[in-house]
Design goal:
single chain, alpha/beta, Rossmann fold, 4-stranded parallel β-sheet, about 15% strand, NAD(P)-bd_dom_sf, SDR_fam
Length: about 130
């Protein structure tokens, strides 16, 4: 059976832990060219080592998904290195548990919306623009 992921460029956000990490490692084992994204450098080093055990070294980009400039940088750097974009896996996300009466309720809401909604819409928008060229 032909491997449909071989040499495909795949960006995986939230890939420094949990399900995003597992997805990145599986994609590497399927011979995809994987771009791992996360905020924590030490976690990115761990997933890089895991990927190298099952396949090739991923492109590692340390980025904060709440920042528009970081999302633009992810797309630009991926295209600069690989010359194309094929697949986007959005797995960055947060959950905040706080009561509505908390002084931090609005700040926490803004953070959750920024990561869980705005970052995804913006990255898909950038991917569609630059990936379709």
């Amino acid at each position: 059976m032909e491997n449909c992921l071989k040499n495909k460029v795949v960006i995986v956000t939230g890939s420094s832990s949990g399900i995003g990490e597992a997805i990145a490692a599986e994609l590497v084992s399927q011979e995809a060219k994987v771009v791992i994204i996360g905020r924590r450098e030490h976690k990115l080093k761990l997933i890089t080592a895991r990927c190298e055990l099952v396949g090739t070294r991923p492109l590692v980009i340390r980025a904060n998904m709440t920042k528009d400039d970081d999302r633009r940088m992810i797309i630009k750097r991926t295209i600069k290195i690989f010359g194309k974009l094929n697949v986007l896996v959005n797995y960055a996300g947060v959950a905040k548990f706080i009561t509505i009466l908390s002084n931090e309720a609005i700040e926490m809401f803004d953070e959750v919306v920024s990561i869980n909604i705005r970052s995804i819409v913006h990255l898909v928008h950038l991917f569609a623009i630059f990936g379709c060229k």
